Amino acid sequence: MVRTGRATGPTLAVVARAAGVSVPTASKVVNGREDVAPETRRRVTEALDRLGYVRRPRFETSAPPGLVDVVVHSLQSSWSGALLHGAERAASDAGLEVVVSAGPTRTGGGRPGHGWLDKLTARGSSGVLFHLAELTAAQQARLDGHGIPFVMIDPVVEPPEGVVSVGAANWQGGLLATDHLLALGHERVAVIGGHRRRTCGSDRIAGYRSALASAGLRYRPEYVRHGGFHERGGHRRMLELLDLPEPPTAVFACSDRMALGVYQALAERRLRVPDDISVVGFDDLPESRWAGPALTTVRQPLSEMAATALRLLVRMMAGDRPEGTRTELSTRLVERSSTAPVPATSPSPR
Amino acid sequence: MVRTGRATGPTLAVVARAAGVSVPTASKVVNGREDVAPETRRRVTEALDRLGYVRRPRFETSAPPGLVDVVVHSLQSSWSGALLHGAERAASDAGLEVVVSAGPTRTGGGRPGHGWLDKLTARGSSGVLFHLAELTAAQQARLDGHGIPFVMIDPVVEPPEGVVSVGAANWQGGLLATDHLLALGHERVAVIGGHRRRTCGSDRIAGYRSALASAGLRYRPEYVRHGGFHERGGHRRMLELLDLPEPPTAVFACSDRMALGVYQALAERRLRVPDDISVVGFDDLPESRWAGPALTTVRQPLSEMAATALRLLVRMMAGDRPEGTRTELSTRLVERSSTAPVPATSPSPR
User: Fold this and answer.
1) Which residues form the HTH lacI-type domain (chains A, B) (predicted)?
2) Cα gap A166→A256, rounded to integer Å
């Protein structure tokens, strides 16, 4: 990322290292926060003076110190709560405050509209977290030009070289979900992915394929569908799968929402979960725990992802450059009641 | 509310009225937003000049124009998404941005901590929405002293005279839930309220009592319990109710979370919903729709409540004073599958 308007002299990361503290702690001292131990404050202040640290000019302009932007896809989804929770907590720990925008939903696609970017640059954001967004090259250049660092959480498509992003270990999650079904004896396992072009979904499907391959099972293209991550897609794709000459005995839906759509389709065909068909979701939204039956799913650590992204952003705001542009937090299988051993007879598609 | 630091001359509300436009529209013109029709802009500008409107000094200080604060109880609850969605949308319509804090959770109680208030006054917030908060007299005085208007959404306790608040029609909701159960023939109807001192919960219980009284049924104190709004409380109180010599045949839980705890208690005693016991919740969280069986509940229009609160705040920021300090948005019953006619034989508590 091109960093403009930086003062000369050491970055805050260098100061933090010299003082033997974390960047957020050094940032707290620089920003006059009180929740720092006196001895720590002394060490940091000493390092600031010794190294001749010059506060970044951005903090001294009209922009209020310490406002970071979190741009989410939609505030209505059950995701955004967990995400904002993690971001707000990590921001507060670093003495920052969070401005939230549900930008992309307004323009329909995953790209935040222009008016929003104008507002952000005019106000002088200290940094931005994007969730499920896709930036144009021009938008990225504009953020870079204003010296506004950003981190992407779960980018919609593979971000360009050099962009820092945080995501869940989607491939691993797909593998876990499929392995679980294979271990229960299922051999006809279908997958319902999200959007074809979204990385997170295709990584999950790649995990599914890897699990099949390791088990020596052949890949059947008719068992791979795309449901756009929403309930309706899960519902529709499941009906299609049931209409196959040889329907699956187990389904891995790449989002909990789609898994709930799968439940609906199965109920309509009078098939029982898990007696007739096993279902695994992905996300671990609150509703998955309360579904009837409770959904076995792959947990995405959304709060931790957002907190990690915010901590990376703080380092970038201090002039540091995180090593490794993509951070992946591991996923884990949460076993509940929607999966069971393969039934003796396969379900009739009716 | 005491308003300090106000410039003399007409308020923006007066200007808006003179120009025949809404306050948010007038505010857009004053704040230089572009999404205003040329003719409207001309009318507002003319009225501004003619009436000698002086922009409030707060907008000209170091604070960036157009940042409002939304302080929620917790960002982890399923509520906060709906709430922030409504607030963010209404803010954006008025050319404002939203800073979100999960203040109260840090300090344990419903009162935002002092550090947070310091930050807010130092930054110069344009206005604040509080959800489920309780402010001390000193905190209110401080906000007033800084000329920062605020609106409370679902205040924990009855706010003092003059404080503007928005809530759901809790009494009406309690009445709707109970009437629904009475119409199904239930006569042994219990209620599990939240915290004893929270207004929203006690209003719902008052609605329950009104419904019983209208139906000529006697009020039985042993049928009224308090579960603190959480799952665990719903679970525990339901077990107590089942251990009564004459257990209820229907339960109105004053939150969806408690209703889901009730489900757990009933499952443990091998009682079926709704065959053995009918259950009604309150809130209409996403998980209530997916619960097994889907929960009949009272819908609280959280997004609309937050949007309404934000629009009131915008009027107050413009120097207007909303008439009526408490706005209530109506609740409605969402019938799903957790309620049924009273069973022929009452459930055995086992």
Assistant:
1) 10-55
2) 21
Which candidate from A75, A288, A291 shows the least CB-CB separation from B85?
Answer: A75
Identify the architecture of domain B170-300 in CATH: 3-Layer(aba) Sandwich (3.40)
Q: Which option is the CATH number for B1-60: 1.10.260.40, 1.10.357.10, 3.30.460.90, 3.40.50.12780?
A: 1.10.260.40
**Mean pLDDT computed over B322-338:** 92
Residues 6 or more apart in contact with residue B305 via CB below 8 angstroms: B83, B86, B153, B154, B166, B167, B168, B329
Whether chain B has a CB inside 8 Å of the CB on A99: the answer is: yes
Chain A contact probe: residue of B35, B36, B97, B98 with most A CBs at under 10 A: B97
Across the A:B interface, residue pairs with CB atoms under 8 Å apart total 107
Question: Which of these CATH numbers, 3.40.50.300, 3.40.120.10, 3.30.450.20, 3.40.50.2300, describes B61-168+302-330?
Answer: 3.40.50.2300
| Residue in B82, B88, B106 nearest the CB of A100 | B88
**Each residue of A44-100: pLDDT tens digit?**
888 887 887 765 433 333 344 589 999 988 888 778 888 999 999 999 888 899 999
Enter the ipTM.
0.72
What average pLDDT does the segment B192-205 reach? Answer: 85
Are A88 and B78 an interchain contact pair (Cβ–Cβ within 8 Å)? no
- Please state which architecture CATH assigns to domain A1-61: Orthogonal Bundle (1.10)
Is the per-residue pLDDT at B45 higher than 70?
yes
What is the pLDDT, as a whole number, of residue B1?
35
The residue ranges of every structural domain in chain A are: 1-61, 170-300
Is B32 an 8 Å CB contact of chain A?
no
| Residues on chain B touching A234 (C-beta within 8 angstroms) | none
- For strands B250-253 and B189-193, give the pairing: parallel
Domains B61-168+302-330 and B170-300 share a fold: yes
Burial B47-83 (b: 16+ CB within 10 A, else e): bbeeeebeebebbeeebbbbbbbbbbbebbbbbbbbb
The reply to whether residue B289 touches residue A286, judged by beta carbons under 8 angstroms, is: no
For residue B150, the SS3 value is: strand
Q: Which residue of A28, A58, A89, A97 is the best one to mutate when testing the B interface, meaning the one whose CB has the most B CBs within 10 A?
A: A97
DSSP string across B315-339? HHHTT---SSSEEEEPPEEE--SS-
Cα Rg of chain A, angstroms: 23
Q: Decide if A81 and B78 are in contact by the 8 Å CB cutoff.
A: yes
Contact B123 A64 (CB under 8 A): yes
Q: Check residues B300 and B198 and name the one with the higher pLDDT.
A: B300
Residues A120, B84: Cα–Cα separation, whole Å: 19
B41 shares contact with chain A (CB less than 8 Å)? no
For the stretch A285-327, pLDDT in tens is 988 998 989 999 999 999 999 999 999 999 999 888 887 788 9
